[in-house]
Amino acid sequence: MGTPEVHWPVPPPGGFTLDHLLAVRQTHRHTELIDASLVLTHPPSSFHTDTVDLLVTGLRATAPDDLKVRRELTVVLDRCNAPAPDIGVIRAGAVTERDRRSCAARDLLLAVEVVSPGSASLDRTTKPHKYAAAGIENFWRVEEEDDGTIGRPVVHVYELDPVTGRYIHAGLHRDQIKVTEPYDIDIDLTAFDRI
What is the mean pLDDT of each run of 10 residues along the chain (195 residues)? Predict the structure, then answer.
């Protein structure tokens, strides 16, 4: 029995664009467009899934009517960059169709990335840099507490510095995240133990 033949997509001249991404996402939803390259990610771990569930529930609990909380919504930064944060808080007017899977960067108020081993560099450096350059005012990076077991989520909160156009660290939250941007949010992170 031989090795199965795999057909990898070959980038067109100039790289992949948003149109290519939207076509691929119909068959592989865990795909992003970063610097004109298609990035396919593996299915999330239990920690990742449970953390996203906890944060989505908490974010929706206090979200005003003019905002929506979405999972893996493609955010169009430019023709060659369309990442999909694990969680996004967007203006309600940005969602015009029930199955719409993308929004413009100007409509994203908070991007949340839960760091996974296979995407750590993207989640910690590449994507936050691109979100800041696009003017997205709030970013959360969520890490797993490293205590030798399945740890709780630890949330690093960043806010966009209007002078430098870069994120500044605005807080680290272990047991509870209580912030006022982009709206009043209060999430009990210890609830992770009960999921």
Answer: 67 84 70 83 85 97 96 91 95 73 92 91 95 98 79 95 96 96 96 88
The residue among 138, 125, 130 whose CA lies nearest residue 168 is 138
Whole-angstrom Cα distance, residue 5 to residue 114? Answer: 33
What CA–CA distance (Å, rounded) separates 70 from 76? 15
Classify residue 17 by its DSSP letter: -
Q: Which of 4, 73, 84, 81 is nearest to 36 (CA)?
A: 81
Whether the full predicted model's pTM is greater than 0.85, yes or no, is yes
Q: How far apart are CA 190 and CA 188, in angstroms?
A: 5
Contact 155, 163 (CB under 8 A): no
Residues belonging to the chain: 195
Instruction: Round to whole Å and give the CA distance between 12 and 125.
Output: 26
